[in-house]
Amino acid sequence: MKIISDINELRDHLRGQNRTSFVPTMGNLHEGHLSLMRLARQYGDPVVASIFVNRLQFGPNEDFDSYPRTMQADIDKLEQEGVYILFAPTEKDLYPQPQEYRVDPPQQLGDILEGEFRPGFFKGVCTVVLKLFSCVQPRVAVFGKKDYQQLMIVRQMASQFALPVEIVPAETIRAEDGLALSSRNIYLSSSERAEAPALQRQLSAMREQVLGLKEKTVSALMDIEAQALTQMQTRGWEPDYIAIRQQGDLAKPTQANLDSGQALVIVTAAKLGKTRLIDNLEI
Ligand code: PAF
């Protein structure tokens, strides 16, 4: 595997490739990321991964400085997966001047849910993803469904800018007890780690409740959300949101859309101790 940090050198290596399959990451790779690499291989060749902890998507009180950086272990894992190039730019490589041009997703998608609790997050994500796409020029890029809203926003950005890249979604990989794999799981203490799967169980219970409704109404869904919120708070969690939304645009379901069978998804972010976990479940 070639490890490249310089944008021009990356371009030299990829010149003439028109089936490049790309997986952007922030490193600290786990089985979830590796499943993205495997999926990428099914869609194209060569597979290029990137590792870059993107300052632009972290808020002032978030964990940019302490975000786990495990480069050598990550390299070993990517080599085993047969990744052709690891693009691992420094901040100077990717942002040689302050990144003043940014991509701002539309408010109705970028400022809700994650965007409400992490202001500017999706602006930072879109900006770096567009820049990484410009460096790698992939035909396909793989994004995990665990970051459901991110996947949707990146997909719409690619569509609105007519980027010549297909965005491929990858299923969430879970531990045996149901906890979605995440680099931030390492922040959990052992008792928190034992409690953490309760989030996924809550989503499953909500899904059953929604499926069991005789009539899907906006108020019935709101009751299910409110109950779930209370239950998680009672268990000691601090949920930012537990919301039943429309799969197509993550908006609150309207009665008309419920009546016409609009597909739904439950999305959540909740703090357990100091660790903020996110998860989702399609209905
Ligand atoms: O999902 C992530 O790891 C990051 O948001 C991404 C897409 C690599 C952009 O920094």
Explain this structure to me?
It is a single chain. With 283 residues, this protein is of the alpha/beta class. Helices cover 41% and strands 18% of the residues. The protein contains twelve helices and nine strands. The chain has helices at residues 7-14, 31-43, 71-80, 91-94, 107-110, 114-117, 121-136, 148-160, 190-195, 198-212, 218-234, 255-259, and strands spanning 2-4, 21-25, 47-51, 85-87, 140-144, 166-170, 238-246, 264-272, 275-282. The chain has a six-stranded parallel β-sheet, sandwiched between helices. Helix 10 (198-212) packs antiparallel against helix 11 (218-234). The structure holds pantoate. Pantoate (PAF) is lined by residues 24-26, 54, 57, 125, 128-129, 147, 150.
Percentage of residues assigned to helices: 40-55%
Oligomer: single chain
Question: What proportion of the residues form beta strands (DSSP E)?
Answer: 15-25%
End-to-end span in angstroms? 40 Å
Gross geometry: globular
Bound molecules: pantoate
Order of helices and strands: EHEHEHEHHHHEHEHHHEHEE
Radius of gyration, whole Å: 19 Å
Return the structural class: alpha/beta
Task: Compute the average pLDDT.
Answer: 97
Poorly predicted regions are: none
Count of strand segments: 9
Q: Tell me about the biggest sheet?
A: 6 strands, parallel
Strand order of the largest sheet: 1-4-3-2-5-6
Number of helices: 12
